[in-house]
Amino acid sequence: MINVAVVGAGFMGSLHARCAARDPRANLAGIVDTNEESGRALAQRLDTKYLGTAEEALKEDIDAFIVALPDRLHVETSVKLLRNGRSVLLEKPMADTLDGARAIAEAASEGGGRLMIGHILRFDPRYAMAAEAVRRGDIGEVVHVSAGRLGTQSIGLKLNGSSSVCFYIGVHDVDAVQWITGKRIERVYSRAVSKIMPSHGVDSEDAIFSTVELAGGAIGHLFFGWSRPDTGPFSIDGRFEIVGTKGTLEVDVRDHGLRIFGPDGYKIPDGQHWPEVYGELNGDLQAEVGHFFESLKSGEPFTMSVDDAVRAVAVNDAILRSVESGQPETVTQV
Ligand SMILES: NC(=O)c1ccc[n+]([C@@H]2O[C@H](COP(=O)([O-])OP(=O)(O)OC[C@H]3O[C@@H](n4cnc5c(N)ncnc54)[C@H](O)[C@@H]3O)[C@@H](O)[C@H]2O)c1
User: Is the pTM for the entire model greater than 0.85?
Assistant: First the structure.
């Protein structure tokens, strides 16, 4: 059994902890959160120990950690855990700066612990099958790609300026584009719009749109936002489309197949990422957490490399530079 603790008992950490608690390969050995109330509540619910800080957790017999801290706090804690020889499943984005991502990668290569970045779309069958179709040559050579996701305004309001929409939301699609096309994004031209968030006193963009150039001459369009009203039927409007020389490929994650119309309106619940079925979490997140444990046990490499995660951060770094400069910017090749 792998003794695992979850760091961060917020939205994602709670889901991770529930996945870890039901995995037969692991023992949920603790919940770490500096907010004692939420940390203790989750620990009690899952019948495990509450630990106040990562330092406290390092004194326990814990082999691996799932880190689900706010984006800007990924570096310090992950580096500490990795340097102490603990394996880490770190929520995306790997870090919210390129220097931060590099520091985590360095700690992983020197510290003895193994590092997996939790890019959940890698475990979404629709995206994984799209990647295989492109690899097989089903649509010929990639000509252009359009990818993005628009979350609801409440996500941006909750973040309250603590992270950019391109890190909290957009990094999913940045990685998907580079992974599925097999081509790196080399140059970006990005513009941001800020109307909704400032009207609520939040210093943040609502959305960032980018025109991108990929290696080998393909072009692309990336869109990320937390601009949609919360009254819509689904929480994430995600789309991914490629036109190739011989065919096209589309992923549409707005419709998960179940539509419910009731007194509160029309709802399309999540049927893919972390659906609750018979009281247990299922779906992509369960698969992601399971893959982490399975690879730790078998010694096999994780399905996604650390380098790929650093490359996604490098694209976001260029996107934010372009928003700032108003000019196209070159992606640092890492
Ligand atoms: N994979 C996905 O689809 C997905 C979806 C949402 C969020 N995320 C990612 O998950 C991560 C967490 O996001 P969230 O929305 O769950 O955040 P959150 O704000 O809901 O939770 C963060 C938790 O960390 C705790 N915390 C803060 N500082 C701490 C510290 N130093 N030590 C221990 N605990 C501390 C907070 O008290 C809080 O409980 C982010 O990196 C985010 O980008 C991923």
Answer: yes
